[in-house]
Amino acid sequence: MKYFWIQLLLILGSVSMALMFIRTWGQAKNRAWKRIAFSVFVVVNVYAVLRPTDVTWLAQQLGVGRGTDLVLYVMVLAMGFLTLNTFLRFRSLEKKITDLARTVAINEGVRHNDERLAQDSAADSGAAGAAAAGPDPDSVKA
């Protein structure tokens, strides 16, 4: 009973993360393995909070002294994974934005070029029509 409050706080934190993840499930474009990994994380987290002696036993089996050390090592690895994942996602988004900006620039250049050619063509056809009709009688001085 002496660990009740911290256990309750940690479990509520895990459940609230799970609820936020589920609430944005349709919006998030997460791959299936990320969803599975997050679900496993929440379940393991709740289990570790309820049975801390089991985490200590597992740590000792793996050659780590204490359960808290094992949790710290796992969290360092998870933080490294999250950092790498975020970096790769940003790099992918930057590449997509660059490609989009290039495409827009090329399309705008083509559109402006087409408009200029159309204006030049109209000006040329107007000048050619005037030359074929002969001199303008009002502009000829007697």
Could you walk me through the main structural features you see in this protein, from its secondary elements to its overall organization?
This protein is about 80% helix and about 0% strand. The protein is rod-shaped. The mean pLDDT is about 80. The protein has about 140 residues and is mainly alpha-helical. It is built from 4 helices and no strands.
Beginning-to-end CA distance, first to last residue: 118 Å
Low-confidence parts, pLDDT < 50 over ≥5 residues? Answer: none
Task: Average the pLDDT over all residues and give the rounded result.
Answer: 82
Q: What integer value in Å does the Rg equal?
A: 35 Å
| Number of strand segments | 0
Q: Quickly give the structural class.
A: mainly alpha
Quaternary state of this entry equals single chain
What is the count of DSSP helices, taking H or I runs of 4+ residues?
Answer: 4
Choose one word for the global shape. Answer: rod-shaped
Order of helices and strands: HHHH
**How is the biggest beta sheet arranged?**
none
Proportion of beta-strand residues: under 5%
Helix share, percent: over 70%
Tell me the layout of helices and strands.
Blueprint: H1 4-23, H2 32-50, H3 52-61, H4 67-133
Helix pairs in contact: 1-2, 2-3, 3-4
